[in-house]
Amino acid sequence: MIENKISIEGDETAKVLRGAMGHRATWMGLIYKKACEAGKGAEAEKIIQAAIAATGQFQGAAIKKACNPDDLREYEAAFLNKHLETAFEMKLTATKDRLDMEFHYCPLLKAWQDLGFADATCAKLCELAMEGDRNVAATMGYGFHLGDTIAKGCKTCEISFFKK
């Protein structure tokens, strides 16, 4: 059973960001649901994956221009901010060679849960959404590791970016 509960409340900027990310996740989830209902689920997965990958490449190119990619502490500063950290209830550890992120809440997952999607569908949508981060990493020239995810029923999401 997936447990995805807010523990940091009262931050208005985080609330707005959570709402915006949830709205984006609602679009994604409903596109996938409607495609599945039309018998086009596998095709939709490929299209969604490709679109999110392209988004990650676009975002990665902008981040690469905004920092020194040889230092993942600079990458962290260009990729994240305190409001995103609060919205996802992140714990971060950054060195010159690695950025480890631990998420304790996911507003995208919350939107999918609010739509009544089964846990397996939430896990599938999470996997598709991670194409963005995978492709940011690839564009930056980094390795990427996705460990546990809340959508798979784990306590946290574990994401790492690292020098190859």
Protein architecture, described:
The protein has 164 residues and is α+β, with helices and mostly antiparallel strands. It is 58% helix and 14% strand. It is built from 7 helices and 4 strands. The chain has helices at residues 12-37, 41-66, 72-79, 82-87, 107-114, 119-129, 131-140; strands at residues 90-94, 98-103, 142-146, 157-163. It has a 4-stranded antiparallel sheet with strand order 1-2-4-3. The longest helix has 26 residues, at 12-37. It is globular. The termini are far apart.
Which SSEs are present, and which pair or pack?
Blueprint: H1 12-37, H2 41-66, H3 72-79, H4 82-87, E1 90-94, E2 98-103, H5 107-114, H6 119-129, H7 131-140, E3 142-146, E4 157-163
Antiparallel strand pairs: 1-2, 2-4, 3-4
Tell me the Rg in angstroms: 16 Å
Strand order, largest beta sheet: 1-2-4-3
**How many H/I helical runs?**
7
- Please outline the major beta sheet: 4 strands, antiparallel
> What string gives the helices and strands in order?
HHHHEEHHHEE
Relative helix content: 55-70%
Mean model confidence by pLDDT: 97
Note the gap between the termini. Answer: 35 Å
In terms of DSSP E residues, the strand content is: 5-15%
Q: How many beta-strand runs? A: 4
